[in-house]
Each structure stands twice: as C-alpha cells, then as structure tokens.
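Slide 14.
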Amino acid sequence: MHTPNERALRSRDDKIFDAVVYGITVVLMVLVGYPLLFVVSASFSNPVDVIEGRVWLLPQGFTLEPYKLVFDNKQIWNGYANTVFYTAAGTLINLVLTVLAAYPLSRKDLPGRQFLMFFVTFTMFFSGGLIPTYLLVKDLGMINTVWAMLLPGAIATYNLIVMRSFFQNSIPYELQESAWMDGCSFFRMLWSVILPLSKPILAVMVLFYAVGHWNAYFNALIYLKDRDLFPLQLILREILILGQDDMTGGDAGMTERVMMAESIKYAVIIVSSIPVLVLYPFIQRYFVKGVMIGSIKG
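Slide 15: predicted structure.
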C-alpha cells in the first residue's frame, strides 16, 4: 500500500503532467486555429487592410465584395461543378474497386493470397514514376479527358490494406462459412453479409478518397488542357500563385486588381473548404477507428 506522502506525490505529479498536456494542447489549437481564423477574417476585410497587415483576428473594413466577385465568376462555378463531379464519381470508382480487391485478399481460401499481398504492398515503395505514368495515360487516350482525373489513382494501396485488414480481423470468418453453407455466392455474401457489417470502414474510405479528390490539382495540371475541365483547386492555384485571374474586370487599374485579388483568394479558400468542413463532422467518429485498423496489416 502507498503511504499518504506517496499518494500526495503521485497526485502532484499527475497534476503537473495534466497541466503540461493541456498547455501543449492549447498551443497546438492556437497554431492550427489562428490561420483558419485569419483566412476567414481576411476574406471579409478591405484588401488594403489585408495587404498592409492590419488584419489580425477580426475583419477590418468589412466588405462582401470578394464573395460577390467569386459568386459572379463563371470559371469558379465551372471549376466547382467539375470538382463535385470528380469527387463523387472518383470516390464511387475508388470505393467499388477497393472493396472488390480487398474482400478476396481477406479470405483465407484465396490461392496465392500472400504473393498477391506482397505484390500489392510492393507498389507502395516502388513505382514507375511520373514520366512513365504520363506516357501510359497518354497511350490510353485519357489526356484532356475526365478519365485522367478518375482512373490513374483508382485504388490507393494504403486504403486497400486498411479495408482488407478490416474484413479479415473484424468480420468472423465463421460467419462467411455459414453463409457459404447456406448457399450464398461470393457476390451475394459480399453484398448481404460483409458490406452491412462494414459501415465504419466504408465511411472512412469515403472520407479518405473524397478529401483526396476534392483537394487534387496535380493530375489536372499535367493531364488537362481544356479550361472547361479544370477542377476548382486548379482555378484556385492560378489565383494564388500565377495571378491569372480575370475576375475584377478589364477597366480596373493594376493596383486595384492586385488588392482585390488578395481578398478574392481568401474568399475562394473559404468557399472551396466548406463541403469538406460540412462532411467531416459526420464521419470523424469513424476516422480514428479506421486509422487504428490500418496499423494492423497481418
């Protein structure tokens, strides 16, 4: 048994530990939260105040002009529509192919299962590289088409391993054997037995793939030439880096255009982030579970 002094010492040590943990947490919250707050405030502020550094926490010279220009711009709405399509169609393709690949690899009776898993895992460490990938996409006739945004990354190896681990470790194999003895085919078993029990991992996969598609711009940068196919992130990239936006009109002076573009880029960041911010709270409870599943690759 511990003496009163030992219990008091342990209690004091615990309090110090808790204080340190809370302190680190507060610092991390400030480091993560302040940039978000600054972007929101800058999007509602006068561009002169933003450029001159007078915006810290709250908007200065409150204005909605940047949002008006964003909502009036056809390029941004076209990019928004393209991104929604790429995210919805791409996530559906990713989910279907990942499930169809992960389920067979999770079954103990699959011949050559270990070799196939080695082959799949091998691709995480070694790949052909950018140039061979581009040549393959070109030879398949997908350059400057929507398929260039959907098919090259149709299956993520890490996500495949996570889903395969879930099927293998979280769903009893005896349940599948019982379904097989009752006359279930493999596809019927997958649809009627496995998937209804796999809602947590499916939600995690939707989050992983959807966020990836929503933020993707590199494939569009190298594969797409037609501006009508550009996703929102590529339009945003032009505004942030290249400065090739034409949203403020040709009559405005150069100085005014530069200042307005400063506010517009913050408004576009807010507009482009809203769908992910809305989606995440509904799926975040499955997020930690999905990550922990991925740590077991047996």
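Speaker note: Residues 244-248 have pLDDT under 50 and may be disordered.
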